[in-house]
Amino acid sequence: MADAPTLKLVTPAPTAAPAGGKRRAPARRATRARRVLSVGGGKGGIGKSLVAANLGIELARRGRSVVLVDADLGGANLHTCLGVELPRTSLSDFVERRVERIEEVVVPTGVPNLGLISGATDDLDAANPRHAQKMRLMRHILALDVDYAILDLGAGTALNVLDFFLVSDHGLLVLVPEPTAVENVYRFVKAAFWRRVRNVVSVYGFEEALREVMGNGAFRSPVEVIAALRERHPEAGATLERELRAFRPRLVVNQARTAQDAELGRAVVAAWKKYFGLSMDFLGSIEHDEAVWRSVRARRPLLLERPEAPAARSLAAIADGLIRIDAGGERSDGPP
Ligand SMILES: Nc1ncnc2c1ncn2[C@@H]1O[C@H](COP(=O)(O)OP(=O)(O)OP(=O)(O)O)[C@@H](O)[C@H]1O
Ligand SMILES: [Mg+2]
User: Domain with 128 in it: what CATH number?
Assistant: First the structure.
């Protein structure tokens, strides 16, 4: 991981640039996806695609223009979650430059306002894009002229997955109430956090300062690292702190069967705050619901097939929460 190229997607504030720094002013974009939402969580089979597809449907039904992007580069199946035939065009066509504009691979889903960019199903190169390909892909996703671009991520903590998570405005973590899933979600969010730190540090040229602070090899929590940096390198510490404030994952508990399961979200948020000194929002929980697998079997999205089912109502409430956050910058430690 140490040698992997970091993604230069952090755009530093012009005033914070040291003289002779290695930054370049970001090019102005004509358009910008108003919000980029990524759905991850580190573990396979926990409901990431279910959440991505149904939040997309709900946001579209509320009049937002939405494009769902199947960014599960190794195991694309979002089209199935939406009940659409495998589209003829996919992300591969864009990654392999068979088309120039990402808009050309957006296909309709049958739901008004909701488009889909289906995943690469057969193309190894697209499943594992090179750095330059990935950067181009992200730039184009960020520039989509929609209210929401929603990225359905793959399992695991591969750098590609982390980078898609980090590029979003809302990094949504799906957690199921099982000890292994709790471990995985912490592993995922820690990996994403440190990737973000490396990214900020490399863009601003603070590598030396960070190495010095972390020099003795002892593990330091993010708050300690920032505090130590502020003491010895005030400018670097303040910049890192400012940049990392944006790192605020949103948590969703899926497949909740008991009241305790639903509470797990609050416990994870509290533990993250206590041990890492960082914020996270709990957006709500989704019941384990027979209607989900029935709708999967019927190849129909839950919100279209069974809108009155408990899991569907919870997904709609989570979409509400996101709209509220986006409308007023509201943050919360739990659903109302
Ligand atoms: N709330 C729920 N209630 C009942 N079953 C569920 C629920 N959420 C998910 N499932 C089941 O889990 C399966 C996996 O869900 P999904 O494909 O969304 O997971 P994923 O995290 O995207 O998996 P992958 O990592 O393979 O992409 C679904 O097909 C469904 O059968
Ligand atoms: Mg999936």
Answer: 3.40.50.300
* pTM (predicted TM-score): 0.88
93 domain residue, yes or no: yes
Number of neighbours of residue 324 by Cβ within 10 angstroms: 13
Domain extent for 157: 31-179+251-271+280-328
Q: What angle do CA 225, 227, 232 make, to 5 degrees?
A: 95
Q: Model confidence at 76, in pLDDT bands (50, 70, 90)?
A: confident
| Domain assignment present for 284 | yes
What pLDDT, on the 0 to 100 scale, is given for residue 291? 97
User: How confident is residue 217, by pLDDT bands cut at 50, 70 and 90?
Assistant: low
Pocket test of ligand 1: the residue of 39, 43, 46, 57 to mutate, having most ligand atoms within 8 Å of its CB, is 46
Count: domains in the chain? 1
Alpha carbon of 296 to ligand 1 centroid (Å): 9
- Name the residue of 39, 48, 50 whose CB sits within 8 Å of the most ligand 1 atoms, as the mutation to test its pocket: 50
